[in-house]
Amino acid sequence: MSGSERVVLCVEDDAIVRMFVTDALADAGFHVLEAGSAAEALVSLAARGDVHALVTDVDMPPGMNGFALAHRVSEQWPGIAVVVLSGCLSPSPGDLPPGSTFLEKPVSEARLIAEVTRACGARGAPQAEDWNQHADAA
């Protein structure tokens, strides 16, 4: 599967950081969707059946943080790979869902791309039944 066939949802409340992440992933061939909050991300995920990976910041006021979003996405859409980023919070036991990846900011463009590529490959393609079964729960 080439990068251009992979859809990544980037969730970041800081527009400058979101632009860095989306530009890096788009330059690597991913199709990148953007959301400025967990609530926006959940709306996007409920509307689409083609997202392969979620890349989310942790600290995103107001509302749900990135750890909670990662758990919700893993429960509702188990076929989506999850990559969590933070420059100020490190995960405690139980903060990350099983199989997810944590990257400390600042993260290099090369490391970000490598981890998202690896995560997408580990999860495979999203399954239609995952979306039909879980979309109504969002």
UniProtKB/TrEMBL annotation:
Swiss-Prot/TrEMBL keywords: Phosphoprotein
Start and end residues of each Response regulatory domain: 7-120
Residue positions where 4-aspartylphosphate is found in the record: D57
Gene3D superfamilies linked: 3.40.50.2300
Gene Ontology BP annotations: phosphorelay signal transduction system
Record-linked InterPro entries: Bact_response_regulator, CheY-like_superfamily, Sig_transdc_resp-reg_receiver
Protein name: Response regulator
Annotated source species: Salinarimonas soli
